[in-house]
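Reopening closed ticket. The problem is back. First fold of the pair:
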Amino acid sequence: MSQDIPKDSDGMDMPANQDQIAQQEKQLLNKQELKAIQANQIYTAEPSKTDIVYLARELVLCTLPHSDPGDVRAWSRQNGHLTLSVKPGVRKDRETGEYVSVGIPYGIIPRLILMWMVTEIRRTGSRRLDLGHHFNEFLAKIGLSGHTGRGPRGDARRVREQMERLCRAIISFEYEENNGKRYGATWLDMQVAPHGVFWWSEEKAEQDLQWGSWIEVSEAFFQAVMAFPTPLDIRVLRHIKDSCLGIDLYALLNREAFRAMKDGKPRFLAWEWLHQQTGNEIGNLRLFRRNSLVQIQAILAVHSGLIVSLVKGRKGQKSGLWISNLSNPSISPEEPRKIPQRTEAANGMPPTLALAPKPPHQQERHLSPSSVEQFCMRYRGLDPYACKAAFDTWIAEKPEERKPRYYDKAFLGFAAKWFKGKI
């Protein structure tokens, strides 16, 4: 007679004894420890050439939907004057013979497919992309597995569906300018891949076929990709690939870090702008902010060059994120020789400006532990003692009557300006 195994509220088998509970907790802890070790390896090691992938600039500024928009004629997202709209393609139904909508691409998988496509276009310089002779081969190319089942949630089934949605969709970018006196607009309508051949088998994804599968991207898509590609670190994407919002925020913050570094000025991103640009499906702005902070924390764990600070909204000022001009993108969009390189000490401290020598004939002042803790919480990735050195130099240049009375309080005020590149 078989013994009944107790179930929990979700119908899952419950551990029969404390040893099994301890074993499950140990396995969970091991996964968390492994992920922390992998994050540290990414954080401390420079990316290699094989770690670089690309995404079209326009798809960084305006992103695809996170969830299925349903059976709609078109879907759109706006970023300032730029609007992205997607119309579903159509195909002949295999059973009824009627033409039906294939739907709008959404979620994580189209993002991974697009990155693979753009990277392959940049690598080969060709509009025709080889997808391989069996499905598992292509799944491996975009970092997914053919062994997750053939059901509706299996990678093979979802990739097959999203690949068709993406390739047949009509994607449009429209830029409008209206200053009250005159109006102007420019637009680009394009199909990602108007020509292709699929010979894949979902049932036997590992089976080799005589004919290979391939797609040919449109000339408009090819030109857009070759003109303004945005490079990303595949290791960071693998770390956060379970979240559409995480992928979108990483691509955007990496671009903003480059702009801040190049211009020598910090970048400010209001939560309202980010919500409209990357997650307007999440109707509640507070929920969007909370979800974004979780993903940003995961990105900061592996992106050593990104320096971000939270800004609380005040009267006449929006709340959002400051991207410091001391930031570095994980992969630079320009050749290294074209970018003014940051001078760093051997221990990876900020620029030499922040490492000014100690002023002569001045009594050494020390920061309280609470001030150091506040600095580290506000400006992750920056050294508080490097900022202190710059602060001491700044104080030394002031006349005696203008020197700050409260050292730690003045230091934190100085750090806020130093972080934004104002000092």
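Second fold of the pair, where the issue appears:
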Amino acid sequence: MAQRMTSTRPAPTETKVDILLVDDDATKRFAMKTILAPLGQSVIEAASGPDALRQLLKQDFAVILLDVRMPGMDGFEAAQLIRQRPRSELTPIIFVTALDRAETDMGRGYDLGAVDFVFAPVVPAIMRAKVTVFVELYKAQQELRRYRTQLERLVQERTTALTAINRELEAFSYSVSHDLRAPLLSFNGLNRTLLDDYGDALDPRAKDYLQRMRLASERMTSVFDGLQTLFRLTSGEIHREPCDISAMAAEVVDEMRAANLDRKVEVGIASGMNASADPRLARILLTNLISNAFKFTSKEPIARIEIGTEIVDGDTRLFVRDNGVGFDMIYAHKLFGAFQRLHSQSEFPGAGIGLATVRRIVNRHGGRAWAEGAVGEGATFYFVL
């Protein structure tokens, strides 16, 4: 019977961190290394203050165990020089001394950045516990640095990719503006000429076809215009300043009334609405939301639109509310997508760009936009800038 072979992968070895042990007495250094050996870390020895400074020029350490009483340069003097070096100014220092507490100037030690004092005789378990704290902290800091480096690299890659995408969008926008839109306008002009000059000579069926073609070309032109608007909203900087939203909304409503003279629409605008926003983009946002409300209340005998603000849980939100056809909340996620429509073109014509434009503007301001509604009961569009 064949034996089933099992392979065992070796456990990944954990990277050791370096601990600097500074003491002029070789016997004490050996004893301390023995105490720290169970931690499994790398202990680097220095026999004096100057020797410790030379070691710090070569590498960084998780913690420094520094003898207070040494000939030539004592531990306090060494600590002062260690703290003057930028790369080691935050390295934890534990002073180790055979002096008693009364003989040790602990205040000076703490002023020099000591995190702790250990007095002889050293208790091995306590020493290991103290050192372990700083070893684990150092490992965590190294891991954070590694993640930060990875994040910076990822951000750089995404920035490069986004730059390439923006260049492609610029090329596409140019193509829409010139290569596609121009022939469409020419086609629309010829169509209009045929209807104006030869419309009476055409039979009703041919005339109907030409009129349909004209409407289709006009819709395509509207779509191209919407695409260009979306692109322009994506590029360029925004310049925030205090905006009088109430006054801006009133101006937009006046424009809507002038364009819909045959309609009677009741509009209420709250006073004192203000926001920090790019004025140009804020006006485009309001124009899209208010025109949307005018459009979807067109079948109401008494159309009502409210533009206001409310505070919920300390969050100030602006809204445009109407009593129009509304929508089914199950499709709310589709509302702000480009070319997404919840109503037929024959009922409510449009390019399907307005709400996508609203979300793009809100996103550029670091805000959020959402909608609530019900079929036949109107809709409310909220936004926070």
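Update: turned out to be a display glitch only; the data is intact. The longest helix spans residues 124-198. Residues 366 and 385 are 7 Å apart (CA to CA). Please close again.
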